[in-house]
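Subject: Interface between my chains keeps coming out wrong

I've been trying for a while to get a sensible model of this assembly. When I model each chain on its own everything looks fine, but I need the whole thing in one frame so I can look at the contacts. Pasting all components below, labels as-is. Any help appreciated, I'm running out of ideas.
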Amino acid sequence: MENNSIAIVTDSTADIPDFLLEQNSIHVVNNLIIIEGKSFLDRLEIKRQEFYEKLPQMKMFPTTATASAGVYQTLYESLFKQGIEWIISIHTSKKLSGIFNAASLAAQSFGKRVQVIDSEMVSLGLGFQALVAAEAVKQGLKLENIISLIADTRRRIRLVAMLDTLEYIRRSGRVNWLRARLGDVLRIKPLLEVRNGEVLSLGEVRTYRKGVKRLLDMLTSLGPIERLAILHTNAEKEAKEFLQSLSFQLPTSPVIVNVTTVIGSHVGPNGLGFVAMLSR
Amino acid sequence: MDLTSQEAPQYQERIKRLQKHPVDGIALMKFIEAGLTWLRTNHQSVNALNVFPVPDGDTGTNMVLTMQAAYDEISNQPNRNFGRMAHTVAQGALMGARGNSGVILSQLWRGFARALDNYEYLDAENLVQSLAVARDTAYKGVVRPVEGTILTVAKDIAKAAQDAYKQSSDLIEIFETIVQAADESVEKTPLLLPVLKEAGVVDAGGKGLFFILEGILRFVRGQSLEIPHASVKPLSAITLGEALNSIEPGQDYEVVVDFFPKEKLNLEDFYTNLENMGTSIQIGEGDGLYRMHIHVPTEKRYEPINYAMSLGTISKVSMENLIAQMEQTRLEGEHNQLSLAKVEPGQIAVVAVVPGDGIGRVFASLGVSAIVEGGQTMNPSTQEILNSFENLPTDKIIILPNNKNIIGAAKTASELTVKNVAVIPCHSIPQGLAAMMRLAPNGDFEAVVQDMSDAINEIETGEITQATRNVEINGVAVKEGEFIALHNGMLVYASSDLEDACLGLLSKANASNYELITLFSGADVPKADINRYADAIRKVYPNQEVEVQEGGQPHYFFIISIE
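Reply #2:
Try treating it as a single job with all components included. I did that and got this:
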């Protein structure tokens, strides 16, 4: 099997910065966000900062849509035409999004040549898995080894975030643990994690500083970290401060990411979190 | 002992008669009834023995309710066997225990019963033994026993009984010595506990125990247990807010009259005359102004006013239709139905003790599965706490007592169930809310309990209430009626102005170093004024977020969380 015979495909919810996509030859399918009846291509047609600034004032709640199976099929076909033998197509948790289904549907006509993988994660929780896979391709690993490497990576990833409000995630319908009137009476900031493909509650805080402290405590308690991403939704200053406040040995080049609008429309602005990939 | 010499000859005959009969289980039932009745007659004076000058004196009430539960239990199943009846008393007291004093009282009964296990009758020897075991059991039931409390009184009683037994084996003589010793021991409590001395009071729990014992002795002697009492409270201690809870059928109007009497009031007569008109009578006095509060039937609603006019000059009258008010409350209640968190087998459920509707709603919104009403002046019983979670479909229960005085009953409840129950030792509403933030219903029980316990230290609690008397504590001089500020339970500031008291508290708590100030307004703060106080705070603390909730708690104008 040749080095360049395997392609890695993911989607825009992986939040991988453009330079890393290029460096690692990762192919990205963009999802859609629909704002007041008009649809925009994620990454390309909408500026994240501007989107989050306007989000609280939007009269209609923006909705999101996955790229169609047809888009995936077209991409897979063109990759095979370029001489690719195998495709690993890795996506956001199928419990949270229809992306995995769209990709799976498209993959059916190519048999085993397209391996669609549920990352059970979102944002760089997915992105790190795609990056590890792409690096393994460069190193010449075999398909089955890469697939088991992805599974191993997934087990080492933790994603935790603090949202500024419950409002957006409640409207998203993506979580089942929300108590009926939670946050209606007392203003709270929920803490959550993504685990086994689901969004789980880690409790709440009432002030930003307490939330940051809990994020720090959780991150510090994880032990040695191989890769780190700080996630935010228009809270770049806070994300940088958070990164600077870390006192442990940081992995090389941690990334700070203003999260994709497709995820961000479900969590709202001023969220802060991290994705950590633990060392083996 | 307040027995006068004239009374003495009257009861000698009775005692001689009683001495011939063995003391069996039925006698114990009578003793319990007597102790309970005498304690009830005097419970207001026990309530008034409060270290803090805050209107939350409830030791007397708690002990009455605990004894009532004990009496209910034995009167339902009378038995001649003394030992068996003693166990029934202990069981009733345990289930009905309210407040810390009630919990210790129930431990005393438990020890008492344990020592009398196989005795058909009470005699001098086993009385002495049982008082010693009662003492030991009560001491063991407290994590860090403090002298100068009900424990010391129990200890002195046991010692006195032992000494008296060396002189005489007459049960009644020994009992007289015991009551005497209890009285002296109570009077000495301020010497052992500096906070009592500073506040100028004796220990309330010890005093309550004394009344129970004295009641038994009075019964033995055939003395009255229901001396009519006309007590006058400070004006601020009149609790009008609870009128609706004590409404009796036919008493449709609440009438409150403030007046200056022409000459000194004869309180006994005054009280008796009011009793002929209605119920729920409370009399308050301050600077010569008297306030009378009474519930009367519709046709008698002007009588208290005419009566007060005959005694002096009326300065203010208020009259409210309780039936209409109750309907209003009922409608509001329906509107504000709590939505409690559904819990599934294996999940962690939280029970919160809350003092007001508003605070209950806040806790409900954060996911508690059961709510027990209670707080400063209304400590729930062990049984009430137990009932709140026994029917929840899970075995993992966390209790938030939200008040120092409820932790004991909550712990007792946790020991009486087969469920896995943890009590988070939160002393205040803000601490309880901080703990709620860490609830993970599907988490590991031990870890969640640890997490929630840690969280209570991450919040500052402020409470604003009104002083019920003059006092100086922690170097803060307080006048009766002034607003006082407690920071994490410590008196830090006093002022005649509510707004100033709030600001004084926030300053003492260094609120400018924090992010969020949440005000829970009490039932006594008019809704229209709440925002005025919040705005005053926002002005002084522009960098802090100020959030306001209607808490609805009694006595506390504001409960404030600072974080």
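Reply #3:
Confirming on my end. The radius of gyration of chain A is 19 Å.
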